[in-house]
Amino acid sequence: MLVKNSSEWQFQDEATFENLLWGNLREWLELTPLARQLGICGEYCDIVACDSAGSPVILELKNQEDRYIVQQLTRYYHNFLEEHPNLKDIHHLDSPKLIGIAPTLHRHNFIDQLYHQLNIELWTFKLQEQNGQFWLEFTIWNSSEESTVLKKIDITSSLKIPTTPPVDPLSHLDKNWRIILSKRSEIDQKRLLAIRDRILSFSSNLGEVATLSKSTYGQKRGQKSLCISEERLCLSIEGLSTSKLPSISIYIPFFSKSSYLRVFKAKLVLISWDEIQYIQFPKDCDLMVLRECRQRDFNDFKHYLNYHEAKNNYRLSTQAYIDFHNELSSKFERFQNLCGTSNLDGVLKRSPAYQNDECIDAQKPYTIQSLHSLDDMIDFALLSWQHRQEQLKAKRQTKVE
Question: Which of 38, 71, 187, 213 lies 20 to 30 Å from 360 when distance is taken between CA atoms?
Answer without folding.
Answer: 71
